[in-house]
Every structure is written in structure tokens, then in C-alpha cells.
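Thread title: Can someone regenerate the structure for this chain?

I was given the following input by a collaborator and told the matching C-alpha cells would be attached. They weren't. Posting the sequence so someone can regenerate them.
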Amino acid sequence: MSDAMPVTTQYITTDLEFDGPVSLARVVAELGDDVVIHLDERDGDGHRVALGIGVDDDPERSVACYCSLLERLSPAARHAWDQCVRRVLDIAFEGGTTPLRAAFALSPALLARTVDLKLGIVITIYRVGAYSDEDDDRGP
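Best answer:
Regenerated them for you:
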């Protein structure tokens, strides 16, 4: 039997990633200080963007925050958004040894908002210790 401390499966963050054939600078500018830019670059004939957000306490709140930001884009920025060929919310978790199972839900109303924004959803699960510092205090 191992003496290792149990590691709890936990929600980490949600990133917004989108790619398009046109400049996405207006979209990024309008999202402004509400996001952290992880990537904003030209990629061949297109543009790639990856953003983070400071609302990381649960996936429902994070996804809702992204939806609210995108829903208030100006018509010009929304036009650029609508031309994107890829729009993804990447919801990240770190796996753990406890609990036996963990469930995180998105409400039907929130899923409808993501559909209206043409957002796909990706779930990324990191192995135990891959995302967090293994020296963290991980009490029971």
C-alpha cells in the first residue's frame, strides 16, 4: 500500500481557441482586459488565437463568462468571429486518485449559448501532477 497523499481530481481552467482566415485583432481587442492572451499569431494565410480568463472556480462559470464576452462583440468583431473555421472552449482538468469519480456539468441553457456562438467543446484531462506542483499541500 502506498503512503502517497491522495490527489483530488480537479477542474483547472478553460481556454478559448479560435482560428480564422481573416484578422482576429478586433475580436481580441474587444475582449480586452477580460482575457489573458496565450497566443495571437499569423499562421500561413490565417490567424490563430488562444485566450485564458480569470474565472477558474468551475467550468460552468468559466464557459458562461466566455459566452457573455463573445455575445457582446460589436457587429464588425462578430463578423470576424463568424468567419472563424475553428472555435473551441478547451475545458481542462487534472486527474487524481480521489474521489472514485468526479462529475462536472454544463447546463442545457449554457450549452445552447455555446451552440449559438458556434463553439465546440474539448475536454482535456492532465495526468496526476502534470499541471499542479507535486509539492503542493494536498490535505485529505
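Residues 10-126 form a domain with the Alpha-Beta Plaits fold (CATH 3.30.70).
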